[in-house]
Amino acid sequence: MGRIITAAFTAFYLAACGAPPEAEPDALPLAEDSSGARAVSGDRFTLEIEGEAADVRLAGIRAPRAGPSAELALARLQALLDEAGGDLALAPAGPGRNRYGALLVTATRGDGSTLQAALVAEGLAAVDSHADNTAHTSRLLELEEVARNAGLGAWGLRDLLVHTTDPNALAPWLDSVAIVQGRVISTGQARDGRIYLNFGTDWRTDFTVQVMRRHQRRFEAAGVDLRELAGTIVRVRGWMYEENGPMITLDHPEALELVDAPEPARLPGR
Fold this sequence. Notes:
With 270 residues, the chain is an alpha+beta fold. It folds into two domains: 3-157, CATH 2.40.50.90; 167-260, CATH 2.40.50.140. The protein contains seven helices and 15 strands. The protein has helices at 7-16, 68-84, 115-121, 137-150, 153-157, 167-170, 216-221, and strands spanning 3-4, 38-41, 44-49, 52-58, 61-62, 89-97, 103-108, 126-127, 176-183, 186-189, 195-198, 208-211, 233-242, 246-249, 256-260. The strands form three sheets. Strands 1, 9, 10, 11, 12, 13, 14 and 15 form an eight-stranded mixed sheet that branches. It has a five-stranded mixed sheet with strand order 2-3-4-7-6. Strand 2 and strand 3 form a beta hairpin.
């Protein structure tokens, strides 16, 4: 199992410094009978909250949007909602709402487990990590790795993928959330302080990860020296876009997994 820079490690670090750990917010007030919850996709459903129909999004995960796994995830989420019934509890997550106005929540069943964990463990959703919602990221990453390695659900159907760093292979996946794994060939730092992780010998076309100066302290707090990652196989996740080749910008350490220890990377002609 790859070494994961987890929220648990960060919480330990913050506790050692005297900062309080991230706390769960109060649950949302649901109707006494929440059996009316209806899945819209594998990570979204509708439910009556305070007498009004609400669009609800499961925070921290992303289910397939297409392919046979999309229907499997939708059906499984509906089954989980039906099983939870009146024991379903929703707690606000992250900013509370996404850009489309949907409520962002952690959904918990009567036994204390989350719907997010169930979907990830069955391979019907991948972890979608965000800096403002990392309380459950560590556990979800562990569950995802087990499901991925076993080829469960969407991983086996290849509706969920871990991409290589080949820029040509990544091109069809630009402007979407992606998981990419490969060896860091070199690192660099720009004049404005941003740090680059280069996955090829030509930064103008190869896959690159960047971390802005304002976010680097988060990685330092988690014990990650970004400038010393040359030779390391890493797995990163986030929105991938075009900027001198495919690029992902990381703003928190939970979106970076160290898969293999650093080894010298011999460049061509050297």
